[in-house]
Specification:
The chain is α+β, with helices and mostly antiparallel strands. Helices cover 47% and strands 14% of the residues.
Length: 510
């Protein structure tokens, strides 16, 4: 039987192929190379070794190329990337056969969180240049990424209390056994007592740490990570990554790594989106986890139109016909009307309603006709009758409700917009956990490279590989052409326009 035969490994060739011949002209790695070459290091603030002593450092552009290639190909580990430098033809071409070790690769990501964010922002600016950012409809959401910290190494006061109770119980047992033990067993029991006393000291230290910081939990492997609810009652120790996605092509516009839930995140993300887009003439879609009065007020105050899903009623009347949403508010008269037609009025005073770390103000509305109302038992079980609380944020909550009711089909687009990046990053690429360790800053470096790779992938797919490559080639050529022209002119004869161009572009030349 005949098979397709390969070449003889030992066969010599008269004209061996150069490395460039082994990489096709339409290979994606050439786009990565041009993308990074179009970056000005001074502008992006990469940390570069300045002293001339010892071995020269690697060019940050080479390490950035390696990382972008790695993230686009589902490789994040510095050790894996180190191996690729020795065996991957594309990486050899990209780095001109440089082979940094894993410590150098890892340290680059560790030291350049701000620069990595600027690279992500650069992808957004390119998308805006190609008119791929609509800027009229955005969707926001968060995703949980597991941190390198197990649940066993995450503690809260109740968990610490259980451990201490267990230790105290064991110490009592060992102390009783010590009294009746013979000489040989006393040393063994004493070792166990010492071990449990050390553990007790460790848990007491954690308790002091929680009291000093005011936090409700502490993680020992990755200090900034927190135990978060992922879905239903399932929890995971990790980070909550907030994202903003533009609806036109599902491109990421902004991100922020946090260790808190969604309730107070919308306002800050919208402020950042306002700066990125340069206007507030857009509609923002968010799910019910973001339905917080203060955040809705922040959005409306900025002039942004929010559509936030309305959560279910938190408290119910004995009969659903008398739930809170059945009471009609009259803004002009500042009164509520109950389903039975009774008027509930307020004394005008504001009362504080604590929510843990913060508070908001409410007014109370009630009527003295509750006592004689035939539907009292259907409406409330309170002795003094039904009281309606109206929050200071009620006008913004009601405005959001009207927005949802006026355009229910628009809100239905939210999930298709905002879940697109998560599907690619978590399902296709397998990035469902944080690679880096020790702080939110380190987690932001990992997430920044994920989202940079995602946006770059979208730009290549939407614009087209060849068209995008031509654009980047133009940027690189114009960049170096201007510098060469500037240097070729005598310093005394250089027109002022050159200096203005370089100041605007933040380019430094000799």
């Amino acid at each position: 039987m005949q098979y397709i035969q390969g070449n003889n490994r030992n066969q010599g060739v008269l004209f061996p192929k150069c490395l460039d011949d082994l990489v096709d002209q339409d290979n994606e790695v050439r786009v990565i190379d041009l993308f990074v070459e179009s970056i000005n290091l001074e502008d992006f603030k990469f940390i570069v070794k300045r002293n001339t002593e010892g071995r020269p450092s690697y060019n940050p552009k080479d390490l950035l190329k390696l990382y972008i290639y790695g993230y686009l190909n589902s490789m994040r580990s510095s050790r894996v990337l180190e191996k690729e430098c020795h065996r991957n033809i594309e990486v050899m071409w990209l780095l001109k056969e440089l082979a940094p070790d894993h410590n150098t690769i890892s340290n680059f990501r560790r030291d350049n969180e701000k620069a990595i964010r600027k690279v992500f922002q650069y992808t957004v600016s390119i998308a805006k240049m190609f008119d791929l950012i609509g800027g009229k409809l955005i969707a926001g959401d968060s995703t949980k990424l597991r941190a390198p910290n197990s649940k066993k190494n995450n503690y809260n006061p109740k968990k610490i209390e259980r451990h201490l109770a267990y230790i105290d119980n064991k110490l009592n047992e060992y102390n009783e056994a010590l009294e009746n033990a013979d000489v040989d067993n006393k040393a063994i029991i004493q070792n166990q007592i010492e071990k449990h006393n050390n553990r007790k000291e460790f848990y007491n230290h954690l308790t002091e740490q929680l009291e000093q910081t005011g936090e409700v939990q502490v993680s020992t492997s990755d200090p900034d990570s927190r135990q978060l609810i992922t879905r239903n009652n399932i929890t995971e120790v990790g980070y909550n990554v907030q994202t903003t996605v533009d609806a036109k092509h599902c491109l990421l516009v902004d991100y922020k790594v946090t260790n808190e839930n969604d309730s107070k995140a919308m306002g800050g993300m919208l402020r950042r989106t306002k700066i990125i887009l340069g206007h507030t003439d857009f509609t923002a879609l968010y799910d019910k986890g973001y339905h917080t009065g203060s955040e809705l007020k922040a959005a409306c105050t900025m002039g942004i139109n929010p559509l936030v899903a309305i959560p279910g009623v938190s408290s119910f009347a004995p009969d659903p016909r008398y739930n809170y949403d059945q009471f009609i508010y009259d803004e002009n008269k500042d009164k509520y009307t109950c389903p039975r037609g009774r008027k509930l009025t307020t004394n005008g005073n504001w009362y504080k309603r604590n929510t843990g770390r913060s508070y908001y103000k409410v007014k109370h509305y009630k009527t003295n006709k509750c006592q004689t109302c035939p539907a009292r038992d259907l409406c409330t079980s309170a002795i003094n009758g039904r009281i309606i609380e109206r929050s200071e944020y009620a006008p913004y909550i009601e405005q959001n409700k009207r927005n949802i009711e006026n355009d229910p089909e628009l809100y239905k687009k939210r999930q298709a917009i905002v879940e697109h990046p998560y599907g690619v990053i978590k399902r296709q690429w397998g990035f469902y956990y944080i690679m880096t360790k020790k702080s939110i800053k380190r987690a932001s470096e990992d997430v920044g490279l994920m989202f940079t790779a995602f946006n770059l992938r979208r730009l290549i797919n939407i614009i087209g590989k060849n068209e995008f490559k031509k654009y980047l080639e133009g940027l690189v050529l114009s960049y170096f052409a201007i510098i060469d022209l500037y240097r070729s002119i005598n310093s005394n004869l250089r027109p002022p326009i050159f200096q203005r161009i370089f100041v605007h572009a933040k380019i430094k030349v000799a």
